[in-house]
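Revision sheet: structure tokens.
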Amino acid sequence: MQKVFLSHSSADKKSYVQIVSNRLIKDIGEEHIILDEITFQQGRKTLEEINRNLNETDLFVIFISEASLKSDWVKHEVFRAKELWDERKLLQICPVIISETITYDNPDIPNWLRENYNLQYISRPTKAAQIIEQRMIELSFERHPRLKERNEIFVGRNELIAQFEERIDDFEKCKPVCMVASGITSVGRKTLLRKCIYKSNIKKSSYPFPEITLNYADSIEDFIFKIYDLGFEPESKLDGLMTMSMEEKIAIAATFMATIQKQSDIVFIDDYGSVISQDGELAEWFWKMIAHEKMKEKFSICVISRYRLRSFAGNPSYLNKQKIVVFEVPELNKKERDGLLQRYLRFENIEIDIEDKRLISGLLTGLPEQVYYSVQLLKSKGLNYLRNNTNEIVAFSSKKANILLREIEKDKEQIAMLALLSLFDSVSFKFLLEIVDNDEKYIQMINGFISKSLCEYVGALKEYIRVNETIKDYVTRNNYSILDKHKTKMDENLKSFLSSMSMNEYDVPEFLFSLKLALSKGEKIDERHLVPSIYLKTMTELYNKRRNKEVILFAYKALEKEEYIDPRIAFELRYLLCSALAKLKDNRFNEEVHKITGANFYFLFGFYYRQIGKYANALEMLDKSMEKRANFSKAKREKVQVYISMQEFQAAKELARENYLNYMDNPYHIQAYFSCVIKSEKNMENKDILYGLIDSLKNINTDIAKEMTLRCQAQMEAIYEDDKEKAISMIDQAIACNSDIQYARIVKFDICDKLNMTDEMKVILEYFEQPEFRNKYYNNIVSFKSIIMAKEGNVVGARNYFMANIRDYTDGAKEKFASKLERYERE
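Predicted:
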């Protein structure tokens, strides 16, 4: 039976340790806890008793305060714990600072504790109990002793480090409060800032940076929740944020950050579009918080941003702009890549000759993660495999998720577990174990995910895990599902949550997730607990599931409080509202879309026109959106869909290729590009491209990709291989994959046309002429009828019928299709 020893001064018992103990007794049971009043008989706390209980201890917790650092009892317990640790008889040690006057580098803390452990001030006993429970769970698995060593490998970046030191030391300017490192994912932004902080002697390398994550749907309310969850603040009530003014919320955020400044701590924020938006705009609430009177001019925040800072929302003064310093982190140059390769090879004890080093070096593009992957490929598969499969290294940047998941995608349980983890922004092991019924095999799975860099630790003392954002996006996009038994357990947990709904009973990630789950299931919730991000995340999930009526309902509900919401989040809510209204062809779209401006206004109108079949109008609007915003990738993707809807495959081809090259593991972009190439000239070059695209789909082990693969293979058998039997068999299998999705039937019509199966073409036409399909597939029906007429010898009649009945094609698209009908006259 696992036991935890709570080492403390009696001076801290009533105010702190007793509260921790009571929470642990409630959650894990008294028999697991070694505490004087529980374990020792009255008046019998002797060195012999202490040593006997320490010998039975698995986890040793030391509560660090002024009193405990002076206590002879505590000093002995710490000394004996160190002996047991050295003898490998103690599994884990967990130091917790409980006094705000003690910092992690206090000289009274033993050197071995300062140098080897994350020492962090935790104000709230309930937060400390949560961390202890997490450490108890971790006793059942090994926590990657080499992970820290690997993460500390660093080369180059000398110019950026010099810029950092120069700015920190520049007394002519105000002191920076926030340092921002921006750049593409996995370029080494976080590692760079840590190195800068260590080299500038701001913190020692043993300092445990508390860390939070904010994504595009998060705003100031989420920042407040997540900073509070770090444990610096005493117990507080945080309900009612949805109806507080922005000024009130900024004051709360500034107060929380002032406490962190008082502790001389530095918070890392992994930012995916919250602090700095996709358009490069710094959130107004963020700089106003930094400029707030409660915050000092003291370096306390590092933002790791995916997006480059281009502008400030609102109008901050020059002085306030100076408080935020931005470093743009480029990819590693060749010298840095070679240096990092050498160090990773040394780390893994791999020796290869200089020619092979040159081979690998020539394949690298500058991402540290790609360098490490190359060494891992060499270690796991060997030198000959690497030499023969250099394309895996080259493709790593664009196919990272697909490559990293390749080993586990065929294991349904592992993929389901990754899908479960992806439901959360971050999650504790305790909550996960509740969902998986304490089955430790899942903990071992997560252990493997972390070693493969699919997941990482975050939080004050790394008490949570989160899925790598690239992996999470891939898992979500490909609709991986969690196991039914885990869904059932989550529903049971939700019932328990709804019966209490007290933030003090749950950690913040669990609390926010449960609110989102309750909202999506239509449960009754006390609205004081809701914040805009919960609406936005729920709406996003519902929109992806095509539950557009619910999206609209929640959007209008959230926007009732628009005056209290961050303008960027209000925009995201309305953007989703317009998208859902467009999908449903709802007339309210016209009213709502006029509350959006710029490129997004024109894009939404283009999207709406495609939904209602007005393709010429859609193209016009999408072109206007791209005039407003150069390289508007979403508009390019939408334009491809419009062209394909009009069967203008050649017009779509270049854009489809560009989209595919930018998102090579996205099955929808692969499919769109395939559709364009298969309609192009039949030659060997195109054949190679098409089979390459099919291989890309095969590497994506999802139901969507499997159906698309069958669809594409069927077309290749019909058009390039002239194998009628295989073509029909494969397209029928594609239809059987999901009979409710009609794309495969449309493809089957083309295949039957190619194979001169007119009767089967008529069967497909009759299917689409059913009342439930007639309106949605009107233009497909017109095209099908025209082709059948032409195929039966009435080309003139087919052309006239098409030109008279087709809707919303451009004149050019009409002529191109009509001219294609003439080929039947020549056959």
